User: Fold these one by one.
Assistant:
Number 1:
Amino acid sequence: MFSLAKTNALRPALLALGGSLAIAASAQIQVPMQPVPMTMQSLVVLLVGVAYGPRLGAATLLLYLAEGLCGLPVFAGFRAGPAALMGPTGGFLLGFVPAAALAGWLAARGWTQGLWRSAALFLGGHAVLFAFGLAWLAVLAGPERAIALGLLPFLPGTALKSALGVALLRGLRRG
């Protein structure tokens, strides 16, 4: 029989597991591009941060990364292992943690209310992802190639995913 204390401790663990599974599923929805695929992960990462808050959001992303490092095929293209973090997508994967934390922090301060604040939340979260991703990609390929391969092709998709995130938040508020 569960006590109330055990149930309260179980809830965040189950939420983190569910969030990590959602992120893993979103990693498989992709447009194959080289060297970094375009996936739906960034949208789900930011939504997890918004829904879970900064601490549980970041913890969920740490769980996701640990799952991948342990060999579970949760990264894009069903990849797993340390090589995925050392490759071109590594910076983006590591950037998921602070991006979710930022989204959760902003959401806790009312940034999901209003069109422009919600848009700023999603664009800011994506900016964190790009900062981490491009920094690592620049180490591997040089700054110019990092911008050409890891930023410019992703701007339209980032705008679309940010708009979708805003629309989801607005729809949830009305429903």
Number 2:
Amino acid sequence: MGNIKLIFYFILGGVVVSLTTYFGSREKGVLAAFIAMFPSVTVLTLSTIYLEAGMRPVLSYLKGLLFLTPIWILYLLCLVYMVPRHGFWPALASGVVLYLILAWLITFGF
């Protein structure tokens, strides 16, 4: 049964990425962002964590999301600022590096 669940999670993730890519590539950025940010993935993730391990891991996951959200917002701001100035790939790489450094510092201490 565990493998079936993993296949379902994989398919769901693929559907979200596919729909986001489809609408994003057609310059429907708000719709693409809506699909990517819609809480369906979070709802499913929270549900599956709860079903697998109970309430404590769910709360731990939620706290982690809250803790890392400001860093994710900085990542997005970095992209918005850098894409027009330096191009897509350098901006993306810079944003990911910024996210990883800040997340590591906050998660594992200064």
